[in-house]
Amino acid sequence: MCAPAAASADEWFPDPANSQWQYLWSDSVYNPLGTVENVVVQQQQGPSFTLAWADPQDQPPAAGAASISCSMTSDVGTMSFQDTNSGLINTDWNSCPAPPNMPILCTTPSPCANSVSSTLYQLIWGSRVPVLSEPLLQDTTWNATGGGDNTVESSSRYLGVQLVKVPAFPSGVRAAVVRTNIAQSGALGDPYGSGVRTTWWVYGVGPVRIVFDHSGGSGAPVTTASLLSTNLKPMPAPPDADYFPLVQGMTNRYKWTNTKHLPQPEVELQTVSAVVDGSARLSVKSVSGPIRVVAQYGFDSRIDGVTNLWGSASVATLAKLPPLGHKRHFFTPIDLMVYGYNPVLPGYPKAGNRWGSGNHADFETFGVTGRTRIIGIRKVHVPAGTFSALEVQSTLTQRGYPFGSGVRTCWFAAGRGLVKLVFKHRDGSVSVVQLMK
């Protein structure tokens, strides 16, 4: 069995060959009447695709076009993207220069590769890698750079889902809202390149509205883009609950017991001690009990799931736990949770997801075969409180080691992570982990 099917990486900006979008972008000071742009898919190659745009009087550049013909009124260009396991990134662009009345977003007038004078330029300004981070879960944040020389910096936060009305969807459509703070310094047109951009993304369609409030105080320009029409249909967005939050400084205190081998409770504190763009280090240390441990774990959150990358521990123990194969040990609740195979959870987990062992690297690490399924949402009572938690059940077999085999059930609460774990080992013992606070 393989990992669960992830939500398609390209549905936040789909790229079927016949896709069409028509946008109207405007600037309250420099382009108050607005410009209409027709956007089409120019080229596709695996996870990479190129969009081309032009005003309705011009034809978008054809695939493989060597150059773009520009005039003083031309609004023509191409922009390339790639769908990755961590989200959508911008890889290249080519267009006519910004209109001469627009602020210059470079330190010299010419040449200047920076512009916000089109819908797609507004979309990627300050946030090329990534344009949109995934999985897009509650309170997701990320940092990015942009501009022709990557000197424009931004920080983005996913705010949740809102109903937004645009001409393409006059009755309203549910959209994921991303707020981005953008900073540029040293450009001739400062502070036009800085400000706050809000983007509304519709699953199955792409961006439907962009509002860029430029810095500069009262009367500063506001640039907007709205979707006028498209031949794409909105799709239900994947669930956005974060059942394994990697939030800097977040702590969980756990109590672990085993009916045969750990009658004295082991209490340990888990801390998210470092977070960088979807990757995090979790630190675990003993609070009380027979195991004295200081441990570190690396985790990665991507579209295909939350993955345990590595782990290390310094341990002194009085507990006589049965042996495991492949030189593995259970010293912390995290050991019990990640034991077996990745992912810990799919990128967008929901009831009915199923996956199993099959990755050679995981088998080399743990020597475990089995399968996992998400049962659904259940009420769970632990000392830290009552949670509506995602119930995830795994059947695990480590040949020749009954303590490393059995049925493990984990409960994950949105915004909190693991709140309870019960591992019914095949040696007849039961390990129970509960969130204390």
| Mean pLDDT, all residues | 94
Counting DSSP H or I runs of 4 or more residues, the number of helices is 3
Strand order of the largest sheet: 6-5-4-3-2-1-12-11-10-9-8-7
Shape: elongated
Nearest-angstrom radius of gyration? 26 Å
Number of strands: 23
Largest beta sheet, briefly?
A: 12 strands, antiparallel
Quickly count the domains.
Answer: 2
DSSP strand (E) fraction?
over 45%
- Percent helix: under 10%
SSE run: EEEEEHEEEEEEEEEEEEHEHEEEEE
Structural class: mainly beta
Task: Pick out the low-confidence regions.
Answer: none
Question: Based on the structure, what is the oligomeric state of the protein chains?
Answer: single chain
- N- and C-termini, Cα separation: 36 Å
Structural account:
The chain has helices spanning 119-124, 333-338, 360-366, and strands at 20-27, 31-45, 48-54, 76-84, 87-95, 132-133, 141-146, 152-166, 169-183, 195-202, 206-214, 222-230, 251-258, 262-276, 279-288, 291-302, 305-317, 354-356, 369-382, 385-397, 406-413, 417-425, 430-435. By secondary structure, it is mostly beta strands. It has 2 domains: 20-230, no CATH class; 251-435, YmcC-like fold. It has a 12-stranded antiparallel β-sheet. The longest helix is centred in the last third of the chain and has 7 residues, at 360-366.
